[in-house]
Design goal:
By secondary structure, the protein is α+β, with helices and mostly antiparallel strands. Helix content is 48%, strand content 20%. Strands 1-2-3 form a 3-stranded antiparallel beta sheet, with no helix packed on it. The longest helix is centred in the middle third of the chain and has 15 residues.
Length: 85
């Protein structure tokens, strides 16, 4: 469920606002910018084609996303741990 917008906190000029999603346990997560969505699309395509196993696709995708969540230290640390795995 997309609710409202979140200000981009990644240091990019322009201060564009992006939609965010509120999840019950995790909290509020910002929807990634288009260039990051391409990364997730390619990662999903690799999983769908069987080039990469789905559990690895999920771990890398979730880890990459959580690492970019600069407003939540807990999520960032969890993402770094998942990317390292």
């Amino acid at each position: 469920m997309v609710k409202g917008t979140a200000t981009a906190l990644d240091g990019r000029a322009g201060g564009s606002e992006r939609p965010h999603i509120s999840l019950p346990v995790i909290g509020t997560l910002a929807v990634p910018p288009p260039d990051r969505l391409v990364f997730y699309g390619v990662l999903g395509a690799l999983g769908a084609l069987g080039v990469v196993e789905w559990p690895l696709v999920l771990v890398v995708g979730i880890g990459h996303y959580l690492t970019e969540q600069r407003f939540s230290p807990f999520l960032r640390e969890a993402g770094q741990a998942a990317e390292a795995a």
